[in-house]
Write a structure and sequence with these properties.
alpha/beta, FAD/NAD(P)-binding domain, D-Amino Acid Oxidase, Chain A, domain 2, 2 domains, 7-stranded mixed β-sheet, 17 strands
Length: about 400
């Protein structure tokens, strides 16, 4: 009599990065009873500000949250009335004003609250904080079953046979799969905040309106979101070479000097717009926008894959966070569907993810938003799609 083979237990899934995608993966795995550990460089959930507003789409972000069993909790985070959009020129003239249509088809939530929802849905200990990855290497390269050693800044290591890079643009896991590295797209973003805007920054708040604002001209502009507590979260976007403001990369840089340099680029703009810089309640944060090649993919490699920006980074176009969550949810579902055949699970996930990511890259959003015909090119696009690059 033949003894039935004992099923091979599903290995603990090792996830690098506790962003929305990594946490969506962890949540779906947890729902299915599959062991998972997430390693995150930040010291705690509150160590960094977690971005601004996100519109969560019915074709990717919302199904991901449904797969995670969190639709009801997500609905409790929605900020009603924020699906409104306004386009201004540099003089502050309103060129397009689209009020919230009340359908709630792409509801707005705060990224930080959504991340906390995912964190709260996981048992203590799944997310290991303060684990900054310094390197990853393959072990047993001749084996058909991949094993990987992950090294952390504190000198500790972990060895895993199922590794997921959810660690963003500068992923430490990606080199196991691909030689691709992010390239600068030619746009630098300067982030500022105006707190309690309705009373302390009235003119700027009036200009922005109830939802999002795009004040644009060729080569430069402002993208602003009104957050749930009334904060105006602003990004001054400029088409600039990579070395522009390079001297601001040091911690001791004078914030006032940086602000003055950026404000000079908006000479002659309406004061309610330049106030987004001059009246900021925080020091300006300079962010350069990068991309991976559109259609980035890799050969199936045992025991390792990527999701979110680690897999398909593009400049903010409204899809990034939604795609990352869907990546995580679908990867978790694939592993749950094939716990005894992890390679099939990873292959099925990648087969669906690659074309989806390439399609979502879509048009050159910043070429339209800051191109020679701005703001009219942006208004034309908004006529087809009410939503801009909220990420």
């Amino acid at each position: 009599m033949t003894t039935p083979a004992t099923p091979t237990p599903t290995p603990t899934v090792t996830v690098i990065g506790a962003g929305l995608g990594g946490l969506a993966l962890a949540r779906v795995l947890h729902v299915h009873g599959i062991p998972v550990t997430v390693y995150e460089a930040d010291a705690s959930a509150t160590a960094r500000t977690q971005g601004g507003m996100l519109d969560i789409h019915p074709w990717n972000g919302q199904p991901a949250l449904a797969a995670a069993g969190l639709t009801g909790e997500f609905r409790g985070l929605i900020l009603e009335g924020r699906e409104s959009y306004r386009v201004l020129d540099q003089a502050g003239t309103v060129l397009l004003d689209l009020p919230d249509d009340g359908t709630g088809s792409r509801p707005e939530v705060q990224r930080g609250q959504l991340r906390q929802l995912l964190l709260d849905s996981l048992p203590d200990g799944i997310v290991q904080w303060g684990h900054k990855v310094t390197g990853v290497q393959a072990l047993d390269e001749s084996s058909s079953k991949g094993r990987y050693e992950v090294r952390f800044a504190d000198g500790s290591t972990v060895i895993t046979s199922l590794l997921v890079g959810a660690d963003g643009a500068w992923s430490r896991v990606r080199p196991l799969l691909s030689d691709a590295t992010p390239t600068y797209v030619g746009v630098t973003s300067v982030e500022t905040f105006l707190f309690d805007a309705a009373t302390r920054h009235h003119a700027a708040a009036e200009a922005v309106g109830a939802g999002s604002l795009f004040a644009l001209a060729p080569g430069k502009g402002f993208v602003v979101q009104r957050e749930g507590d009334g904060t105006l979260h602003s990004y001054a976007q400029l088409v600039k070479p990579l070395d522009w403001l390079a001297d601001t990369d040091h911690a001791d840089t004078d914030a006032a000097a940086v602000t003055a340099q950026v404000v000079s680029e908006f000479d002659g703009w309406a004061p309610q717009l330049t106030a987004l810089l001059t009246d900021s309640d925080t020091a300006p944060v300079v962010r350069r926008l990068y991309t991976l090649p559109i259609g980035h993919r890799w050969d199936r490699t045992p025991g390792v894959t990527l999701l979110g920006d680690a897999a398909h980074l593009v400049p903010p176009n409204g899809e990034g966070a939604n795609l990352a969550m869907l990546d995580g949810a679908e990867l978790g579902q694939a592993i749950a569907a094939h716990p005894d055949d992890i390679e099939k699970a990873l292959a099925d996930y990648e087969q669906a993810m690659f074309p989806r990511a390439a399609e979502a890259a879509g048009e050159d959003v910043y070429g339209i938003m800051l191109g020679d015909d701005a703001p009219h090119s942006w208004i034309s696009m908004m006529g087809m799609d009410r939503h801009g690059p909220n990420e």
